[in-house]
Amino acid sequence: MSNGLLRIFCVAVFFLYGCVTGATTDRTALVDRISREGKLEKSSLKTSSFTLTAYSRASRPGGTLNLYIEGDGSAWIIPAWRSLDPSPRNPLVLEMAALDPAANVAYLARPGQYPAPDSSRVDPAYWSDKRFAPEVIAAMNEAIDSLKAITGAGKINLVGYSGGAAIAVLITTRRSDIISLRTVAGNLDPEAVNRFHHVSPLTGSLNPMDVADKLKGLPQRHFIGPKDTVIPSFIASSFVKRAGSPDGLEITVVKGASHSKGWREQWKLLLEVPLRSPAGIED
Known about the structure:
Elements (H helix, E strand, L loop, with lengths): L2 H35 L3 E6 L4 E7 L7 E5 L6 E3 L2 E2 L9 H8 L5 E4 L25 H18 L4 E6 L1 H10 L5 E7 L5 H7 L23 E5 L9 H9 L8 E3 L13 H4 L13
Parallel strand pairs: 3-6, 3-7, 7-8, 8-9, 9-10
Antiparallel strand pairs: 1-2, 2-6, 4-5
């Protein structure tokens, strides 16, 4: 690389770092405001692999916890360049949690998202190729145990958005206290999604489609957007068939929704959509 190109590269990196630092501050301020309005208290949960950020509120000890799992966030700047900060630019999932009228509600961020100032640096691989790695699932699972203790909750209704849906599925197969699953624009088969977009497969990650059959009998609801260009609609259809429901009645198409738009405005109504039980009886 010539001296001129090297100088340009260094300036670009310095500029990008400054932008990321400012953006991180702005994003943190925004989520703190949303959490205050939703009466959600912030926690830093230390696990065996990561320190994870969570927000929660609880007013019914022993009741059910509605737990929201964040999506992949701002994992990439461009397809070939990983972000320095995967915190979501659009705090959709936290807003959904804040809107949830349930007595016990929690939101759980992914590794590297909204990091505490004193937390250890997270390898960017954990918001790219290894975002669904076994150690990530184990850490998220540990954090859920902590959130149950914080809120005093008994059972859990899981809600996963985008890549958070993959995490939710993989966690559900490891626990006995999950009583329902909702996914929103869920990446329920990362291998198929990557093939669809003609991008390289993930390395070091688990695929929720491989354990879909273990969710047979679990009340669930999968919301998809007809304008979603990120997660094609056949992903949810394939997943529920693998989970033992050939008719796909657990899928709800949300009018006007894309991957990131149209959910916030309709979320309270969508929470009222019944979940289908194993016997086909709506709860």
